[in-house]
Write a structure and sequence with these properties.
Elements: H1 3-24, H2 28-44, H3 48-61, H4 66-78, H5 82-95, H6 100-112, H7 116-129, H8 134-146, H9 150-163, H10 168-180, H11 184-197, H12 202-214, H13 218-231, H14 236-250, H15 253-265, H16 271-279, H17 286-295, H18 308-313
Helix pairs in contact: 1-2, 2-3, 2-4, 3-4, 4-5, 5-6, 6-7, 7-8, 8-9, 9-10, 10-11, 11-12, 12-13, 13-14, 14-15
Length: about 325
């Protein structure tokens, strides 16, 4: 049944119950349930004002209607009335202080309001009750990352990895975090697992390729950049890094210049990276590369130029 039909059915049922209630004594609990379901229908239709009215009426009829209170809080959060949502959630906690669903939602509400410290505190309360609560672990890990506390984020996501080593989001996050922390070996391991599952994720492939390149796994780096290019030939950085490897580590000037041309055609304009390439002592056929770049209109940089500007750019494209 479609949401629209569902809504109409509950609306008609509500009308029938209200009419019948005048003569047959329909219970308050039954009427409250109908208002609750009506609120759910409005919720699904994203008619949040109407959903608030329906849930509020259900709670007025039955004060202990926990499901209606919880959904009312969710409506407030989704409609941007975060403070009202927080107030309702605290009222719920007065009745059920150990409810991890309510606590997780409250932590999420504080995240929405920008109170990261408070959100982490409440996720911590959840984890004190259940150290394996995946929702609290994942969200707290993301918050630590957002706060630039990468080491703590790694600890949290490592706990999640032990619980579910097949979780793709955890694999991606761990791989990226480890690389940001400078541990390319661990980062590569996690991202290799991730890209086996998500071979179409060009962003992850770029991060993996960069790590391979830094570790001088040039063949693997080329494979990853080529995979990115197959997915989206309009990513200039993938073409340029491929060209850089071919023109330096591999020594293939013919294909290197072709890749450099593809990078420029795709919109590559990073002069600092070009300067780094020209300053690289392993650059092959430097005069030919320089002539090509001059033809394409890049500022002239002499092969092997060790000027201050060139040195600042060395490796800058990585």
């Amino acid at each position: 049944m479609s949401t629209q039909h569902w809504f109409k059915s509950y609306y008609l049922l509500l009308c029938c119950l209200l009419i019948a209630g005048c003569t047959t004594g329909v219970s308050i609990q039954e009427t409250a349930e109908v208002y609750f379901n009506l609120g759910n229908a409005y919720f699904e239709l994203e008619k949040y004002n109407e959903a608030v009215k329906a849930y509020t009426r259900a709670i007025e009829l039955e004060e202990s209607f926990a499901r209606a209170s919880y959904n009312l809080a969710r409506v407030y959060l989704l409609s941007g009335e975060v403070e009202k949502g927080i107030d309702v959630l605290y009222q719920e906690l007065e009745q059920d202080g150990d409810n991890s669903v309510i606590l997780n939602t409250l932590a999420y509400a504080y995240t929405l309001s920008g109170e990261t410290g408070k959100a982490l505190e409440i996720y911590g309360q959840v984890l004190q009750r259940s150290q394996y609560d995946e929702n609290a672990l994942y969200n707290s890990g993301m918050l630590y990352w957002e706060e630039q506390n990468r080491q703590k984020a790694v600890e949290v996501f490592t706990s999640l990895y032990r619980i579910n080593p097949e979780d793709e989001n955890v694999l991606y996050n761990l791989g990226t975090l480890e690389i940001e922390l400078g541990d390319n070996d661990r980062g590569i391991r996690f991202l290799e697992e991730y890209t086996k599952k998500q071979a179409q994720d060009s962003e992850a492939l770029m991060i993996l390729a960069k790590a391979y390149e830094e570790e001088k796994f040039f063949s693997k780096a080329l494979d990853s950049y080529e995979a990115v290019i197959k997915l989206d030939p309009k990513i200039p950085q993938a073409h340029f890094r491929k060209a850089y490897i071919l023109l330096t580590a591999i020594g293939d000037s013919e294909n290197g210049i072709k890749s450099l041309d593809q990078a420029i055609l795709a919109g590559f304009t990073e002069n600092a990276s070009i300067q780094a390439l020209m300053a690289d002592p392993d650059l092959v056929d430097a005069d030919r590369v320089l002539a090509f770049l001059d033809e394409k209109g890049f500022p002239q940089v002499q092969a092997g130029d060790d000027s201050e500007e060139a040195l600042r750019g060395r490796g800058g494209g990585l």
